[in-house]
Amino acid sequence: MATGPEAGMDDGAFRTAEGRISLLWLERLRAYLEAGRDEDVALVMEPLHSADIGDVLEQLEPAERIALVVMLGDRFDYSALTEVDESIRLEIMEALPNADIARGVAELSNDDAVFLLEDLEPEDQHEILSALPTFERLKLKRSLDFPEDSAGRRMQTDFIAIPPFWTVGQTIDYLRAEQDLPEEFYQIYVVDAGYTVLGTLPLDKFLRTPRSVKIDTIMNTTFVLVKAEEDQEEAARSFERYDLVEVGVVDESGRLVGVLTIDDIVDVIQEEAEEDIRLMAGVGDEDVSDTTVDTVKSRAPWLAVNLVTAVLVSYVIGLFNATIEQMVALAVLMPIVASMGGNAGAQTMTVTVRALATREIEGGRVRRLIRREMVVGIFNGAIFAILIGLITWLRFTNAGLGVVIGLAMIINMIVAGTFGILIPLTLDKLKADPAIASAVFVTTVTDVVGFFAFLGIAGLWFGLF
Amino acid sequence: MATGPEAGMDDGAFRTAEGRISLLWLERLRAYLEAGRDEDVALVMEPLHSADIGDVLEQLEPAERIALVVMLGDRFDYSALTEVDESIRLEIMEALPNADIARGVAELSNDDAVFLLEDLEPEDQHEILSALPTFERLKLKRSLDFPEDSAGRRMQTDFIAIPPFWTVGQTIDYLRAEQDLPEEFYQIYVVDAGYTVLGTLPLDKFLRTPRSVKIDTIMNTTFVLVKAEEDQEEAARSFERYDLVEVGVVDESGRLVGVLTIDDIVDVIQEEAEEDIRLMAGVGDEDVSDTTVDTVKSRAPWLAVNLVTAVLVSYVIGLFNATIEQMVALAVLMPIVASMGGNAGAQTMTVTVRALATREIEGGRVRRLIRREMVVGIFNGAIFAILIGLITWLRFTNAGLGVVIGLAMIINMIVAGTFGILIPLTLDKLKADPAIASAVFVTTVTDVVGFFAFLGIAGLWFGLF
After folding, report:
1. TM segments (chains A, B) (predicted)?
2. Within an 8 Å CB–CB cutoff, is residue B207 touching chain A?
3. For B14, which of B93, B312, B370, B396 is 20 to 30 Å away at the CA?
4. Do B292 and A372 touch (CB under 8 A)?
């Protein structure tokens, strides 16, 4: 029940009951855009939250997106661009004059401004920065100097820092008098003259403590800080682990230089899980709004890797050419063993990759986990060996063939469990991302072992070599 | 750089530089546990944050976990149990007397208490609730009456509500005088006599506004609320969309009954992405700490489904028995076409499933996306058709075989793209979770089409029927 964004819209709600953007609403906007009725466009867009404006942009055709931004002019809230897919953001920003972007960026908080600028071409970035007031420009430049995906890139450089000898009353008076406060803040930092953090204070502490109390008697002296060069995923883990809402960011010398807030971190957490899903499926850093060419480019490398392993696997089958020729039922049955192994391997691998990503596998648990996966492989192998053995016996009225496929199944399931856990663990030890290549390695192993075990055992059993 | 949890530990840090629990630290704890030195155990555990206590519990053997909780006695912080895997939580809680649990639960905030109680057996739940003070018991019972995974289950029932005619000064005086405030809060709710929300006020507003200002002149009148019966995933989407830190929860009559805070929602967001990964890989609601038997139980159903489809696919191959018998190279090559189709289908499916989960596919974008996936299928199909065609030609010195496998590849890649997007979309339309069954359907389609197209075209081309 979002009461906010609907307020002020009497002629047709913006979102349907299921939370999707109303097609009726969208049609009306499109009509206004086509007719060039910019006052009407501004009127329907005005009540929307920047996240909703982002959703609207994603729904429109490319030409309509530009038209919308141009018609809104100075009324367009550039923070909406932080809410759309990267490809749409770049498309819109490339279509607009840099002077307009500079005007829009000047209105944004430091972290949103960095988010918009970081992916632009160096020349455009330079031109926009030059058009900004000196103080803003220097702050943005400092953030942009930190590595991509670091805490320093994501941080907000406005924060409230007070000395430890102030009282609660003094602090409140200062906040009431000060005009240039951050838009929103959740805690106040107690620092020494060199901006080293001595303590933190959540806002509710100020509201429950008498005015005369000294700050250093109520501040939290155990607190979490993150380094500006630290990866944003590391910072996200601190937020998750300690249920934080805001954290201070310090430079190499321990000086407080900014803060990270939970809303930025929620996006990081989401992206991180997303990344694992994509890497495991062999999809790159891809959006639904990417062009066809970009999509082909992002997927072809993974398909190429798969082609190489598939050809390799087919060479393994080729070794048993003569065996298959004598008993064509083997060709009919062989994909079953490989497919079951691939599936079981994917299960183990997924659990392992996620456990590594969330740091759930440490120390003594590893050995316990490997043992469990092997035992699971033996159990499931036995269950499905019996099933497929019976099915095969009935279908081909050949008990021997049933025994052969059953044996191959047990072997492949144990191999699947073992490699499903060892491959991601090894990649992690080698400092590679276990999500990225595990799937390819695991299915290659289960395919090779599946075909080799089945055709090999069959050859021995029926004397076909 | 976590300064907090290390504080007070002079004899060996708790975490290593990489953020893992120090094995040395763990060994010492184990030694204390075995020797029954409960004062030493309490001493090393005392400085730890509840999240760290949770991590320690996960690293220990089952018997050690119980020993740790028993030795700590009343010093054990039960909120640590909200940080461990479900199976470990249940194992510990089943081993402890209900009276101890009741004493521990009484110390917790309402949302943490519900989290611990909700998965217990009804009798245990009842016994623990009965041991609590009436007021606490009623509050917990009301939360437990809301459906599983609803906002009402996750909410915190302590919040601060004030009337609109108060001033900023009156509110601050009230907060300073009131003893029974929630542990942490980020906004204050302005309500009428019937607890209908009239507005919200973030805490920083109180700190920047003079004491004499009336509340109703500064409160936010556009705000987001969630219904208690609403699914927690819906609530999480509101948090993400509007960058919220806290949101009010209302019952059917619009009465404010609790609040949801971002720290609970971060877990929901994490779980939701996690769930998609697991469902796509055919792994149920499984933890790394599950027993072997539970793991077998969770995975076998998916393997059974895979067995059925694999047998189905093998019947399709069986149709071409005679064809393969005449040209055994077909058996050697056929897994390549199926494997490439399966991979391409998984790519499209993954992008679609995640876009559906994050509500990125709406209205006009669907048609555009289907068109894109088909075109991507044609492009990648053409690229890999040429590649595999050449490889096959060189390997078997048979140009016709190269053409056949190339044609089959193009067909299967287009089919993979089309079904990779249509299957999850259809499941979503039918109100099923697109993550759960898409993978099985998509690979069945690409296997069937892959084998059928390749063997069928080969049969026609070489006149083998």
Report:
1. 302-322, 328-353, 374-394, 400-423, 435-462
2. yes
3. B93
4. yes
Put simply, the answer to whether A19 touches B184 (Cβ < 8 Å) is: no
Q: Report the number of secondary-structure helices (H) and strands (E) in chain A.
A: 22, 6
Return the residue of B nearest to A8 by Cα. B222
Structure tokens at A295: 């999509």
Instruction: State how far the Cα of B59 lies from the Cα of A194, in Å rounded to an integer.
Output: 40
Residue among B329, B339, B369 whose CB faces A288 most closely: B369
Whether residue B10 is found in the same domain as residue B121: yes
Whether residue B379 and residue A296 make contact (CB cut-off 8 A), yes or no, is: yes
Which of A91, A114, A149 finishes a domain?
Answer: A149
**Same domain, residue pair B111 and B170:** no
Strand ranges (DSSP E) for B288-443?
none
Between B278 and A189, residue with greater pLDDT: A189
Domain range spanning residue A223?
161-281
Q: Which of A19, A303, A358 lies nearest to residue B380, judging by beta carbons?
A: A303
CB contact under 8 A, B266 and A314: no
Choose among B363, B362, B370, B368: nearest CA to B422.
B370
- pLDDT at residue A2 greater than cutoff 70: no
Q: Quick one: B359 and B437 in the same domain?
A: yes
- Which residues does A211 contact at the CB level (< 8 Å), separation at least 6? A167, A168, A169, A172
Q: Does B463 touch chain A (CB under 8 A)?
A: no
Q: List helix spans (H) across B397-433.
A: 399-429
Largest CA distance in chain A: 95
Number of domain units in chain A:
3
For residue A76, being part of any structural domain is answered with: yes
Domain match, A331 and A428 both: yes
pLDDT band with cut points at 50, 70 and 90 for residue A355: confident
pLDDT category of residue B345 using cuts at 50, 70 and 90: very high
Looking at the fold, whether B39 and B77 belong to one and the same domain comes out as yes
Q: What is the pLDDT of residue A3?
A: 44
Residue range A3-57, pLDDT digits in tens: 444 433 444 688 887 777 888 899 999 999 999 999 999 999 998 988 899 989 9
Q: Could you tell me which residues come within 8 angstroms of residue B462 by beta carbon, excluding any fewer than 6 positions away?
A: B326, B327, B400, B404
Residue A401 has pLDDT above 90, yes or no: yes
Least CA distance to A198: which residue of chain B? B3
Which residues of B fall within a CB distance of 8 Å from A445? none
Residues A378 and A260 in one domain: no
Q: Is a pLDDT exceeding 80 seen at residue B213?
A: yes
Q: Which of B213, B248, B279 is the last residue of a domain?
A: B279
Residues A190 and A86 in one domain: no
What CATH number does residue B274 fall under? 3.10.580.10
Q: What is the CATH number of the domain that holds B335?
A: 1.10.357.20
Cβ pairs A/B, distance under 8 A = 366
- What is the per-residue pLDDT for B420? 92
At B360-410, the pLDDT tens digits run 776 667 888 888 888 999 999 999 999 999 999 999 999 999 999 999 999
Q: Any chain A CB within 8 A of the CB of B172?
A: yes
Distance from C-alpha of A197 to C-alpha of A393, rounded to nearest angstrom: 74
- Given a contact cutoff of 8 angstroms between Cβ atoms, the answer to whether B67 and B100 are in contact is no
- Residue A341: inside a domain, yes or no? yes
